[in-house]
Amino acid sequence: MTQRKTLEQLLQQHQQQAAPAPNKDLWQGIEHALVRQPQGKANASSVTKPWFAIAASILMVAVLVSQWWPKNTTQQPQTIYELAQQLNQTQDQQVELIKARFEAAGYKAPSGNFAESLANLQQARKQVTESLMKSPNDRSLLEMLRWVNQQELKLLDQAYAKQSRLQQL
């Protein structure tokens, strides 16, 4: 047991010698350095860092949005006449599509009164378009063109619907 006490005493002495406590002057120097550090400078950098991060985030989002935002590649019409030209192109495509679908299903092209009425509506469309060429910003002519186009589509639907009813009989 005495050996054990002696061993413990030796260990305690060794630990005390191995980890010497810093002298008081060292701690005072550390405290003085911590207190002397300018608080305003630390606060300014800690305040500006989040603002820089926010600004960088906003800039990054703006760049990404500008890259992914769909770009308008179609030219916007400058006058009502140009808009009428686009309407006529769309109307021609719709009429051809309707005719192609019905003819693919075995229906015949409209004939008789329907064909004559369709020809009259197409002539009316040409006349309204020519009037728009002379008065390129007349909105009432544009509305008239839109109405003529709607009537043409309705007449096509009626002509093919009538054939459908006749085939069912």
UniProtKB/TrEMBL annotation:
Biased composition (Low complexity): 8-17
UniProt keyword Membrane, yes or no: yes
Region annotation (Disordered) ranges: 1-22
Keywords assigned by UniProt, alphabetized: Membrane, Transmembrane, Transmembrane helix
Segments traversing the membrane: 51-69
Organism domain of life: Bacteria
Protein name: Uncharacterized protein
Organism: Idiomarina tyrosinivorans
